[in-house]
């Protein structure tokens, strides 16, 4: 595959993985949790490096995933003790992210691990760091990791679709049916953490947040059916990757930032023209119906 193809494939895997998870985040009204976890995983990455002195390997994934789970647990713990959920997210997110930044500044030194890289990532470097895979040959390490994560996400959604659907719409009903609501919540948060970590190094925190929230929010404007929302969110995530890449090529600017901006353009179009919840779409549809009746 060409250099451009690997970048587009990697970005599409990020968009697909994040957009599927994002649907359930939107339905659970936990969009800001995505922002929190995408930043607090920095602390897990830094601690993993300080322990192992290695910038690659499974220990980085484990450290970041643990940081994401700790974020979810602390937010839930504060919420259960009377602190509003949005305030809990704000406190935990800023505190853990600040600790990560301080550790980078004081303990990491000259290693290639900095706040700019953490926020924006560098997807243009992805094709150069490869691993050998049977029957495929050389494949970028980040692409392989994201492919594995996508398979895990699809497997988990298929396995727990009913449980996550019920707990997302009505946790009280789920509890009355015997579904372990807390266990499903932390399992889902673990999946959010793993998805965030897998995407983090390639595209940075900004694009992770954009891909987790915006395609799903756009899909929500087009449909009220969960299966359709999952499909639309996936399409929007992949489309954002392609639109953003060619926008960055034309403007000679950051690829990840352009892809994040593309998600915003898709949301704006959906906000204006979707027939279900669109600002103009809802006005156009009755007018079209009236014209049909009059005809």
* SS class: mainly alpha
Unreliable stretches, pLDDT < 50, 5 or more residues?
288-295
- Content of β-strand: under 5%
Radius of gyration: 20 Å
Give the full name of the CATH homologous superfamily: ABC transporter involved in vitamin B12 uptake, BtuC
What's the number of helices?
A: 11
Query: What's the domain count?
Result: 1
Q: Which CATH first-tier class would you pick?
A: Mainly Alpha
What does this protein look like?
This protein has 295 residues and is an all-alpha fold. The protein contains 11 helices and 2 strands, in the order H-H-H-H-H-E-E-H-H-H-H-H-H. The longest helix is centred in the last third of the chain and has 42 residues, at 181-222. Residues 288-295 have low confidence and may be disordered.
List keywords for this structure.
295 residues; 2 strands; two-stranded antiparallel ribbon; 11 helices; mainly alpha; disordered C terminus
In short:
It is a multi-pass membrane protein. The C terminus is likely disordered.
What is the strand and helix layout of this fold?
Elements: H1 3-27, H2 31-52, H3 58-80, H4 85-108, H5 115-120, E1 130-133, E2 137-140, H6 141-169, H7 171-176, H8 181-222, H9 226-251, H10 255-273, H11 281-294
Antiparallel strand pairs: 1-2
Helix pairs in contact: 1-6, 1-8, 1-9, 2-3, 2-4, 2-8, 3-4, 3-8, 6-8, 8-9, 8-10, 9-10
């Amino acid at each position: 595959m060409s250099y451009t193809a690997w970048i587009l494939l990697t970005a599409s895997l990020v968009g697909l993985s994040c957009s599927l998870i994002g649907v359930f985040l939107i339905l659970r009204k936990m969009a800001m949790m995505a922002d929190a976890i995408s930043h607090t995983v920095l602390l897990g990455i830094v601690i993993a490096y300080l322990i192992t002195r290695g910038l690659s390997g499974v220990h980085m994934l484990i450290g970041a995933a643990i940081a994401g789970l700790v974020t979810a647990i602390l937010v839930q713990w504060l919420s259960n003790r009377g602190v509003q959920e949005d305030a809990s997210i704000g406190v935990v997110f800023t505190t853990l992210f600040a600790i990560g930044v301080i550790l980078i500044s004081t303990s990491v030194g000259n290693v290639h691990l900095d706040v700019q890289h953490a926020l924006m990532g560098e997807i243009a470097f992805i094709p150069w760091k490869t691993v050998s895979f049977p029957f495929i040959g050389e494949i970028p390490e980040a692409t392989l990791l994201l492919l594995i994560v996508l398979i895990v996400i699809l497997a988990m959604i298929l396995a727990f679709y009913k449980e996550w659907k019920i707990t997302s719409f009505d946790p009280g009903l789920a509890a009355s049916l015997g579904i372990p609501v807390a266990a499903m919540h932390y399992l889902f948060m673990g999946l959010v953490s793993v998805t965030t970590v897998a995407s983090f190094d390639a595209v940075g925190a900004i694009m992770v947040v954009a891909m987790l929230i915006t395609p799903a929010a756009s899909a929500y404007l087009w449909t009220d059916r969960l299966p359709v929302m999952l499909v639309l969110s996936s399409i929007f995530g992949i489309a954002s990757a392609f639109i953003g890449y060619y926008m960055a090529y034309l403007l000679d600017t950051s690829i990840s930032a352009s892809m994040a901006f593309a998600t915003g353009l898709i949301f704006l179009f959906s906000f204006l023209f979707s027939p279900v919840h669109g600002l103009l779409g809802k006005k156009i549809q009755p007018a079209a119906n009236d014209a049909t009746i009059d005809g």
